[in-house]
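Record filed here:
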Amino acid sequence: MKFTVNALFIFRIIAACLCFINIEPIYGQIHISSKSLSFPSNDPNINDITQIWEKYISLENKREKNSLWYGCDYIEYLTPNTRMYNEGFHYTFNISHIRKNLYEINTISYILTNPNNLFETIESIYKVCAIRIDGEWQLTSFLDANISHYKQTTVPHITYIYPHNYCFTKHKARIASKFIETFCDEYNLAYPQIKYVVANTIDEANYMIGFIYSLWRSDNTLAGRTLYPNTILSTQVDHIHELVHAVILPNYPRGHYILQEGIATYYGGTAGKTYSILMELASLWLQNNHCDFSDFSGISNIYIDDNIPLTYLLGARLVEYIIDKYGTNKVLELLQVSDYVSIFNHLEIDDINNFVINLFLK
């Protein structure tokens, strides 16, 4: 999948925020604009919310973070190994009163690579909310705070949340539900309860959970994303690839990328193409191109047919090989292995490169 950035949009956001900046950033802290917030604020609620928000950002312990949060925390995790939305600095440029007992916190997440330009690398511009529960302020996701604005449909194991103008197909939802049961039964896994945010575009789905802008965006209507542990963002009701992730990730959060994506691609394909078509593409590509499969870093940025990661195809073919030779229990066993080479060691494969080439071409 290729990602694009709306440069004009980001320029406008940066320009709006830069006029407030005169700060010395420290990792793990937020920086609140005195101009935008009139900080300390005359609103005591904003002062209280600011303290909670600063504490949340500074905490490393997940359990302590959870004590400040109500509902799903989409800021903390993209996946357990990729905290893309929360791994840099945070510049909070506005906290605003929305309605009784609800405030909105607007923040930019960025990585400081150039001290002379604090917003050289913006990862996301996002909103979270603060709600008062039993007299105490707690943080909550933008989606949970605004859930009444969207439609919901529930089938076994999945709750769908979608805009009123989205053409929802309940028949496809039942297919997705049935797939969950079949897949979990095959691997002897417990049925999950999945929150499924489905929208007309990925940008719209991102916005529903609070991201005005994110590096992870796509114009591809076939795109999808699974947020640990159990939330799917997609434009499709029956996105099988992401449903597999939503089952596997909570059970095997540290499994290597090659098998995480491999098992999802084996069952659900990718980029609108089935597994069998993907294998034909991989075989054709290898007949005309060369790469070294013995090192994961050497293949991690190779794409086939413009937008299909070679790693997805290798992982899928490897999963098929493991199932055929050892059974599904071996797949689960190897999903506990976090190192690429170690996966092949467990399969007693020494020459990884030749093994993979022969696997694709046979």
Observations:
- The first strand starts at residue 30 and ends at 32.
